Amino acid sequence: LESMTFNVNVDDSDNGTEYETPRPRPWPSWKQVNPNAPNVYEAVGYWTPMERPWPGWTAVNPNAPNIDNPVGLGTSLEGVAASVTVSGVAKSDGTYVEEAQRLKFDPSGRFYHKHLRLALTDPSGDVSLIEVNTAALPEVAPDCSGIAFLSEDGKLLEHYLHPYPGCKDEKTKFYVSGATSTTTMHYDSDSPSRSDPGLFGGLVMDMEDASSFRDAAFSGSGSLHLTGGRALQVTIEGQDALGPRFTVQAEFYDGMGPGTHFMNVSTPSGDFVTIGTDSGYSGSYVMRSSLSQEPEVLWSFRSRGWHTFSLVCDASGLRGMVDGSVRALQPADAHQGFVPRAVTLLPSHELSPVLWDQFFFTNKTVVPSEVTGGTSYTDAAYLEGSEWEAVSPTGFGPRASTGGQTVTDSASAVMYDFGGTRSGHVSGSVFALNLGADEWNFVEPRGPQPEPRTGYSACQSGDLVYVFGGRNALGQVLDDLWAFDTKAKRWTEETPKTFVVDGGLYSTAQLGGSYGHTCSVRDGQLVLFGGLAKATGKATNGVAILDLSTYQWRAGASKPAARMSHSAVVDPVSGSIFIFGGVTENGAELSDAWEFDLDGNRWKQLSYRSSLPVVDGRGGIFNHGAVLVNGKLLTFGGQSYGQARAGNLALQLYNIRR
């Protein structure tokens, strides 16, 4: 339709308004409403597994990496696109995966937390008209914002919400472009509405500039009010008119008055098809064709209110639709080559006014498709603009291992890798991955270097990467603190510089030596939590806090259950540290999440509405990696009761809501 022009005339006037195509696609200015995300501290959120499909899963299996103990999990900022890079990991069967994977996403992208399998039947049109019982989905916002339709390979599909009957109805209607039988609907998001009538292409008219009648059914838009023989006629000029595929559609408000009101679609030769009301059929809508020898086609459900009249042409012939109910015009061969050049919307007389609205004329076919998937939803997250891809860095990089850590310097977009173990060998080497160029470099630090180790913690403050504890090649638990200067490429042991205010940290927490703990930095304070303490041989829930300006250690509040091999992230907005999961020294796996308020020195357990994904009927996860993505805790990999987190459980999401 790029070189076609539409002339629109009201009341048969020659002073029509021209609509050039393609036209800009409007984004509705509906107010976002999400009653399921109250602005209260206690409503924290819930866990959801990252459901299939995620495009670009490669190197391990086509669905999701079957890996655990991710040694290379980091975040970076590459230009305007954010990413999470996973490099060099081990599988639960003892083998290793050398290939790197990267999850790329839009930094402003939104998360959708619910997933509905539609199981569409015969989605043969360019655009599918589907009905969803949104009234049965409490997490759907009143205006149906926060909804996305996805293809099987994870691509976002354009959609348009039919204004009548609108949202929160048993028969909410959506037009979805490019839908297939495997199309899914994701919802429960703070995303604004993506409903866009521009998906139809061609001419789309909301009657805002015509003589209008305000009607709430179309969100206050203007509706064309025709009486006394006045008509709206749309003609097409330019290249060949629509065909052999097209859809003409208009919304019609039936006041159940007398007379004949119809949408007339005509060709240059005078052939026509009409759909509308007829005084001779008071209880039905009628379709007639000048090319058919058959009697009128009837829809026997006429009623007061808004109705949709459509005429669709494709390879199977010409079909009329009223409210999605399809009737074919016979004989089919008589209507081949039916190429419309004009559409006229007509009432009969002033005593029976009607309204017309939401008119479009396009070379796409719009066909109803039945939803057979019901309203059975799953907690499955979708992140806008996300895509997994295999990464093949150049240069000399580390071999895949377990028990190591990576730290990403966002300013330079460089990910540093240190330590870890593979087949009994414990590493003490440092490698740097340039995330912009995807190039590994071996780093030869200056000066003394820390003992090779595994199970340590690492965190960054400015140009310094701090490493604490872990185990050496002999299995001995370490208690030293080192700092690696990323600019000078030099290690410095910081242990002798520090002093401890609370001596109990040696016997009950990390400072006497520990491994499997976490390290977090916020505002110049380094926070250690959990791990297996050397002094007791048991997991601890101790908190040790180091002031990096005074090098003074102090104890923090201890409340969560003792654990090791958990995850921890710092929320830059609230300043809180969030921990999740882990395992006790007895092998009991944990699935709880906690928030540590560093300023107030207090813990708060987070509640979530649905259960974690489970393995063998049990929850809990440890040895996983975690990063913060758009205010959400995103975890990757890990182990659960001896099994790797695999398939659609490889990614999980915690929605931290305020």
Give a verbal description of the structure.
This protein has 658 residues and is an all-beta fold. It has an eight-stranded antiparallel beta sheet with strand order 2-1-19-28-21-22-23-24, with no helix packed on it. The longest helix is centred in the last third of the chain and has 5 residues, at 504-508. The two termini are 47 Å apart. The relative contact order is 0.15.
Brief description of this entry?
The protein is mainly β and 658 residues long.
Gap between N and C termini: 47 Å
- Overall average residue pLDDT: 76
Structural class: mainly beta
Shape: elongated
Question: Helical proportion?
Answer: under 10%
Task: Report the biggest beta sheet as strand number plus sense, adding barrel if it closes.
Answer: 8 strands, antiparallel
Low-confidence stretches: 1-6, 11-81, 208-221, 613-617, 645-653
Q: Give the radius of gyration.
A: 32 Å
Features:
single chain, 658 residues, mainly beta, eight-stranded antiparallel sheet
